[in-house]
Structures are given as structure tokens and as C-alpha cells.
Amino acid sequence: MDEFSFIESIQQHYYRQSTLAKGVGDDAAVFSPMGNDVVTAKDMFVENIHFAKHTMTPFQIGYKALAANISDMAAMGAKPVFYLVGITISKDWLMEDILKIYTGMKSLADQFKMDLIGGDTVAGKELVVSVTIIGYVDKEKARYRNLAREGDVVFATGTLGDSQAGLHILNNPGEYLAQEFFIRRHQLPTPRVEFSCALESISRLSLNDISDGIASEANEIAQASGVSIEIYEDKLPIHPAFKQFPFEYQFKWKLFGGEDYEILGTVPKKHWMTVKEIADKMNMLVTDIGLVTPPKASGHVLLKRINGKIEQLEKKGYNHLSR
Ligand code: ADP
Ligand code: MG
Fold first, then answer.
1. Fold designation for 145-312
2. Ligand 1 mean position to 117 CA, how many Å?
3. What is the model's pLDDT at position 321?
4. CA angle, corner 221, sides to 246 and 265, nearest 5?
5. Which chain residues have CB less than 5 Å from ligand 2, an ion?
6. Which residues pair with 230 in a beta bridge?
7. pLDDT at position 323
8. Considering only CA atoms, which residue is closest to atom 4 of ligand 1?
9. Which of 4, 140, 254, 292 has a Cα at 20 to 30 A from 28?
10. Which protein residue has the closest C-alpha to ligand 1 atom 5?
11. DSSP bridge partners of 135
């Protein structure tokens, strides 16, 4: 299969977004956002850094690559509408598996009514999938990280640490409780777009998606907002079967694990019940895990341990440039 027939086989036959004027097939795509703010982000996935053939199928690699990008839209309160895919294909990948990566992306794109409007295809030494996503949000309604204020409730959706637990199970096969749940959370994460878009009526919110673990995400919010954040260890939401893992793994995964693609946010106290009601209606878990405080010399993010001790939580998720 050459580059041209490849592009032909992955392109959509019709587009769903009415703001699209030109999709795949010209030198560039064209769309008219109709009074919305345009929100865009990119996330790249490199074989053996972000995923490995023995823990992820090609379908799941595509699904997760797009999920991570959609999750960035959720973190901005934006609705995802378009995506572009740059792919570097290495010799040890079969064309049918590359097409399955696209099928994985498409299955998620179908759920969110997104259109694939472009990309680039090159050969190289290892598989790299680079997705650019474009979303819309009402004018000036993007949910920035610098919007946390003293007194806000800090909340997290879903349960934390599941993705790393799933990866652990995949790498250490054995008998586990809720294996399928944890593995699914690693391979096919659900970005929380519906939830964050449903919070639209709330005047002020800061949101961050949990790609690198809540320690890192909370630090980003606290730094950007010039505040400190207190998190209570006993409130961190976990799946009931999470307790089967050694305590030090639990601690590491739920705070520093990442790839859960849940949402960490802060909201004025008076709106916390609204957040909870919206989540309840969607059958989603949302938990208040902490409080925004004035900036403290002892650190941007402080964890109140179950034994009452207070520790600084550093921003130590996965860091690609640390050597
Ligand atoms: P150009 O030479 O103008 O860059 P290409 O031959 O690279 O054009 O691409 C032709 C069309 O196919 C463009 O619309 C481009 O966005 C799209 N395209 C190329 N590769 C991909 C890909 N991997 N995924 C999605 N669209 C692609
Ligand atoms: Mg090109």
C-alpha cells in the first residue's frame, strides 16, 4: 500500500461538522468557527515510551492517543470537533495494524462526532502517532488553570491510579480482583468532555485533566493561580479493589501515576453542590479531595496524610526530559 492509497483508505467519506469547509484532500483544511473560541492542543505517542505492543493492541493505541487529546479539550471546557494525525510508520508495523490504529481513533471520534481533517504520513525508525485536536468553546469561556481562588473546593472525577494498576497487571500477569476494570482503564480511557461541558453554567472553575497524576496537575493549578492546595489523603477516590496492591504502589499510582484522564478542578464552595449534582445525573463519581488556601511557604501542594502529618507534594509525574 502506498502513501496515497493509505490516505484514501483512512479519509472520511462525509463530515459531520457543519463548520468544516474543506477536510482531507487539499493542502490544508478550512473551517469557520462561527463565533466560538477555537481551542487546540497536540499530544504525541511514541512506541516504547507511551505504549508497547505487548500491552496495547493497535486499536487501543489509536483510541488512547485520541482520548488523551480529547481529555485536553475537557480540561478547557471545550467541545472537541476536529483532529489531524501525523504518523511515522516503521518497517516492523503491518499496514493492517496501522489501519487499526485509525479504527481505534475513529471509534472515539464517532462518539464525539469529530471529523478527521488532515495529517501527514512519513516513514521512520519507530512508530509515532501525533494528534492535533481542535475544539470550540463559547467566547471567553475556556477554563484556565489560573482560575483557582482561596476557599475553592478541590475535586477529582472518577477513581485515581487505575491506569497504572492496569499497566501493572498487564506487566505482571496473575490473579487480581477487578482485573478487567483496571486493564480497561489503562487501554481505553474515557475523556470527561460531557462532564466538563455540563459545568458550563458555573461562572468560575479551573480544570486540569489528569494525565500526569494529581500531584503534578494540582501543582500546575496552584502555580498558575498563585495559591496553595491542600489535599486530604483519606479522601482520594479509589476503586474498592485498589486496596489489593501493596500500599506503596497505591500511594504512588494515585498521586503520581497519571493517564487516568479524569478531571481535577477547583470551584467556589457555593457551586460545589452543583458540580456534584451534575456528576450524579451522569452517574459519574466526583469527590471533594481538598481545599484551595492562600499561598504557603511550605509548598504549592500539601498532602494531609491519614496519620495527620502534612507533606509537600512535588510535581513528580513522568518527566520526559529528566535524565
Ligand atoms: P501535502 O503534500 O500537501 O502535504 P499530503 O499528500 O501530505 O499533502 O496529504 C494529502 C491530504 O491528506 C492532506 O489533506 C493531508 O492533510 C491528508 N493526510 C496526509 N496524511 C494523513 C494522515 N496520516 N492522516 C490523516 N490525513 C492525512
Ligand atoms: Mg504532507
1. Phosphoribosyl-aminoimidazole Synthetase; Chain A, domain 2 (3.90.650)
2. 9
3. 60
4. 70
5. 120
6. 291, 302
7. 55
8. 27
9. 140
10. 120
11. 39, 80
Question: Among all ligands shown, which has an atom nearest to the Cα of 87?
Answer: 1
Distance, in Å, from the CA atom of 24 to the CA atom of 205, rounded to the nearest integer, reads: 36
Stretches in the chain below the pLDDT threshold 50 = none
Residues in the chain: 323
* Domain residue spans of the chain: 3-137, 145-312
Q: What pLDDT is attached to residue 322?
A: 58
Alpha-carbon distance of 90 to 84, in angstroms, equals 20
Prediction pTM value: 0.95
Distance of CA 49 from the midpoint of ligand 2 (Å): 25
**Residue whose CA lies nearest to ligand 1 atom number 2:** 27
Q: Which residues of 89-107 are buried (b: 16+ CB within 10 A; e: fewer)?
A: beeebeeebbbbbbebbbe
DSSP letter for each residue of 188-210: S----HHHHHHGGG-S--EEEE-
Ligand nearest to the CA of 27: 1
Q: What is the pLDDT of residue 2?
A: 86
Q: Which of 23, 22, 20, 19 is nearest to 7 (CA)?
A: 23
